[in-house]
Amino acid sequence: MPPTEGQIRDRKLMQVLLGFAHTMASDYSAQDALDDLLRQAPSLLGVDGLGVMLLDDNDDLRFVSASDDRVRLIEQLQLDYDEGPCLLAYITGTPIYADDLCQDTRFPTFGPVAVESGLVAVHSFPMRVGDTRLGALNLYRTTPGPLDESSKQLGGLFADMASSYLVSARQVDDVSRQVIGIRQALERNGVIEQAKGVLMHGHGLTADAAFDLLRHFARSNRRKVLEVAESFMDGQLTAADLGLDSHQVIEIDHHG
């Protein structure tokens, strides 16, 4: 028995989502991957446009991607008006179906503007992972009418899978930033340790006394210890410049 039209559509959508997952696992940026996904998905979901809003680092909801310029404008207007199905879906954590914005009284400011643009129906699905809310996925149509049950299920699945992939990408990005931070810290410490080593082996200081000498000079000259260590290793500062003499070494050893 040949597959039905609905089954073919479902398979194509799953292929698009799997392609999105593979892209997110590559060096492709999350923004580019999401933009590509939203350009491909409308015909598969039986809608005329898609948009995504996500929380930013300040926990503010913001527009991040859309299938076309018209949807991009309408997404931003919901944020500007602080009103619309997308915001309501995010706030309530439940899907919001605005089958006909000409008749829907929940959005008195946003509704007429959307209708004037030609988008007369908006169906919004919350994006979340577990109890953590991420934003909303928004489906737009140029004709009024409800989504059928299959489209509702696909919209929810689409939102859930996209949420999971985006969270995974953020986690990878967080780990990458942590690795970069650790590498930079090791590099900083390496320069300081080198400077300490020269002071210890070349001038007979203990490790604590060598570090205190660098720190004392840095504080006295309102500089960072790293900068002082780099200048010392580059030859821009000498041990004498740092104030190395027998009296100061004794003072640093006892009061550093």
UniProtKB/TrEMBL annotation:
SUPFAM superfamilies: CheY-like, GAF domain-like. Residues 172-233 form the ANTAR domain. Gene3D superfamilies: 3.30.450.40, Winged helix-like DNA-binding domain superfamily/Winged helix DNA-binding domain (1.10.10.10). GO terms for molecular function: kinase activity; RNA binding. Pfam families: ANTAR, GAF_2. Keywords: Kinase, Transcription, Transcription regulation, Transferase. InterPro entries: ANTAR, CheY-like_superfamily, GAF, GAF-like_dom_sf, GAF_ANTAR, WH-like_DNA-bd_sf. This is ANTAR domain-containing protein. It comes from Euzebya pacifica.
